[in-house]
Amino acid sequence: MDKTTTNKIFIGVSWPYASGKIHLGHLAGQNIACDVFARYHRLRGNRVLMVSGSDSHGTPILFKAEELGIPPEQLVEESHKNILSTFDKLSLLYENYTSTTTENHKKVVQNIFLVLKERGYLYTQKSKQYYDEKVNKYLPDRYVRGICPKCGAVNARGDECPECGEFLSPEDLLSPFSTLSDTKPVLKETEHFYLDLKKLEPKIKEWVEDSSGVWRKWVREFSKGWIKEGLRPREVTRDMKFGIPVPVEGWEDKVIYVWIEAVVGYLSASIEWANIIGKPSEWEEFWKDPKCKHYYFIAGGNTPFHTIIWPAELLAYSEKYSDNTLWEKYKLPGETLKENLNLPYNIPSNKMLLNKGKKMSKGDGNSMDVDSLLEKYNSDLIRFFFVRYAPENHDREFEWKDLIDCNNNELVANIGNFINRTLSFLNSKFENTVPNGVLDNNVKNAIDNTLKNIGENINNCEFVKSTDELLRFGDFCNKYFNDKAPWISYKEDIKECENTLYNSIQLVNALRILIKPFLPISSIEITKLLNIQNEYDPNIELKEIGEVKNFENKWSFETVQPNTKLNPPEILFEKILES
RNA sequence: CGCGGGGUAGAGCAGUGGCAGCUCGUCAGGCUCAUAACCUGAAGGUCGUUGGUUCGAAUCCAACCCCCGCAACCA
């Protein structure tokens, strides 16, 4: 708590695919935890750059748009708007949430592509791929179906047989057909660029060995397992028009594959942010200062892209800085410093949220969208629930009962109850005015320790643990009130009663501060109830003017002064009756 | 033998050789300012299975079973 230096924190959040709405998996996976993390660090007085955006290219979008009979650009724009509106309802605050459709992003992606190519990490190779002659398109693996060569199932996909679970190549399928036209596709020769991960393997292996100590166990083991199997070259271009053109002569008909494009978004969104705030080189503060720690909030199968492939790209790209010709030729927008780009520090990836035993994802039609949840429940509850019940180390089944229990037993009965009993008591017995008193030592200690512990938990990306700590503090508050029994001292020793309520209101104020990263709206409600005015809050500033200007530590406790006149008490969290 | 994670009370999880624990829920009693908390007590577990090492195993070893994710456009 004594630390006053300002640290720099970069937060990259997995880019949701712009083909529909945000679903519960996104929340359980990364979109709530990242915001808790960012809000905490801003409060702590640290400089935070949190970026993400809508992943707006790729075949699935193209096909879905065709299915809907609208241009892909329209689908992408509508999805992007939907995502922004859902994020806003959930109080998710980014320094920059953008999209892969921007001119800036295109420039950065092509720049990276060309540098990797010049450094010899990209090579071309010819291959045969299924082509649907009726709709004139090359087919991604999963759009080719046929008979499984292993078990004989009739509707096996080109990537996997859903019956026997065998992993396939489209060419393996017997009697293949295109899911787009039901016609028989033909194998056609095509040529693509490949990223030579093999060449980068030793560097990546060394980096993972050295830096994975702070990662979650499953993230570390999963990544090491991937490397152990051997990295294979990966296609980085596609036969399509929809996307970012390959910036090489003769390749005008092809685009850069979305997986490579989307991770570059972390960098391009940072550059875009620097432009938005009018300091085009400011992104370098976060990307080139080795003291700036990079965190990536993602989930499940996205993990190796962030623990292996994106770091590989960064390592390879950074060779530009020791090559004068490339440095002169391929400067990024606003780039002034000849320093390597920062690699990830921690990747607090979550496991999967399951629905009826299976993972929720758009692809499988097994998802629930967040908007319908927001119609029923308040956003702070949803935020808290997805932190408290996050699948940090194991997959987890989504249960309605858990959501209701979380609300009724934790927000209502623990935190809400204490605030309510204190404010009601002051309202009915003390004319809603804070009495005089002296801060008890154990109250002060509890507040200090909780600030410290929750701060450490969040900083270590142990979010479930941080909510344990918060609820333990709620227990302490309730127990304090109970043990002091002001309803008795009110009749027998009014001074003692005043002192208890003085301390209780300090605990309410402590709760108000402690819940800021988790329950921002409720925290503001309490600020109103306590009649606290003109308090600086970096998260509110970011929301209102789009930028944080002040870097002082607000993750600290200040007392509510005696004689403060409070506003009439209100219920913060409504109990949910079983339906 | 593809890679990895997991299996401990109704639910969620701690627990790396020494009496099986924590949180929530359930039941009974006390108390009551509160959408209720707090206190006291209770019920509830062959620690996935089998075998081994050991004075002693949830923990170490071996084999096996089950669940989940990944295997390259899926958070």
Describe the fold and architecture.
The protein is an alpha/beta fold and 579 residues long. The chain has 20 helices and 16 strands. Strands 3-2-1-13 form a four-stranded parallel sheet, with helices on both faces. Strand 6 and strand 7 form a beta hairpin. The two termini are 45 Å apart. The protein binds one RNA strand of 75 nucleotides through helix 1, helix 3, helix 7, strand 10 and helix 8.
Q: From the alpha-carbon coordinates, what is the Rg to the nearest angstrom? A: 27 Å
**Continuous helix count:** 20
Helix-strand makeup class: alpha/beta
How is the quaternary structure best described? single chain
Helix content: 40-55%
Terminal CA distance = 45 Å
Low-pLDDT parts are: none
Biggest sheet character:
4 strands, parallel
Note the overall shape. Answer: elongated
* Record field, number of beta strands: 16
Q: Beta-sheet strand percentage?
A: 5-15%
Strand order across the largest sheet: 3-2-1-13
The average pLDDT is 88
